[in-house]
């Protein structure tokens, strides 16, 4: 079964809407773990629009499963990660104008700043994942850059999941990329835009080890509570193994 990492960014989004102290993403992370989540993901953006440095420090102190820090490949963020020492760093692209991450990291040119971030983090025992499009060239570039893992961008698949979307084609791209990455010795994760309606086919891909799910799960939690929302998603992941 693929492991579930709950992204708590949008608990912080709600807090920052009023510049208040509640709701606390750290409390949400604890509740998600108690409900059975296998890990916690948080994206410390350069503009600090939701998760704050304080949140990352406290999450490091209380998360007992796995803390996955999403961040840009900048010297500031690398320094923060080296100080906080999450269990994993996922390097993601970042534009200030975007509502959320819009695409995979550009890795085919093997950008020096990405290579340097990977080198510095992994030299201190922090494994690095690259958030990439499910493109075989991006998988190959990730291997060349020295990453330990990749997270396949499921946004195009999620957008194609409607009744008239090309979801089979997008799913097959995820399958091929996952198989190629696994064969190359990379850990394989996936995420972005996954919901209670479209996660099962991705969770059924045997090479995918972790799923990072945030917005849709947190939206569900606003209605039924985070414990129930996590339990429902875990049920989907377990059922996908048997399908």
Task: Tell me what you see in this structure.
Helix content is 47%, strand content 16%. The protein has 243 residues and is an alpha/beta fold. It has one domain: Aldolase class I (TIM Barrel, Alpha-Beta Barrel), CATH 3.20.20. An eight-stranded parallel barrel has the order 1-2-3-4-5-6-7-8, surrounded by eight helices. Helix 2 packs parallel to helix 3 and helix 6 runs parallel beside helix 8. The longest helix is centred in the last third of the chain and has 17 residues. It starts with a strand and ends with a helix. The mean pLDDT is 95.
Quick gist of this model?
This protein has helices at residues 9-17, 25-34, 53-62, 75-84, 112-123, 136-145, 155-159, 167-183, 199-203, 215-224, 226-242; strands at 3-7, 39-43, 67-71, 88-91, 128-132, 149-153, 187-191, 210-213. It has 243 residues and is α/β, with parallel strands linked by helices. The protein has a single domain (3-242), classed as Aldolase class I (TIM Barrel).
Question: What attributes characterize this protein structure?
Answer:
single chain, 243 residues, alpha/beta, TIM Barrel, eight-stranded parallel beta barrel, 8 strands, 47% helix, 16% strand, globular
Topology:
Blueprint: E1 3-7, H1 9-17, H2 25-34, E2 39-43, H3 53-62, E3 67-71, H4 75-84, E4 88-91, H5 112-123, E5 128-132, H6 136-145, E6 149-153, H7 155-159, H8 167-183, E7 187-191, H9 199-203, E8 210-213, H10 215-224, H11 226-242
Helix pairs in contact: 2-3, 6-8, 10-11
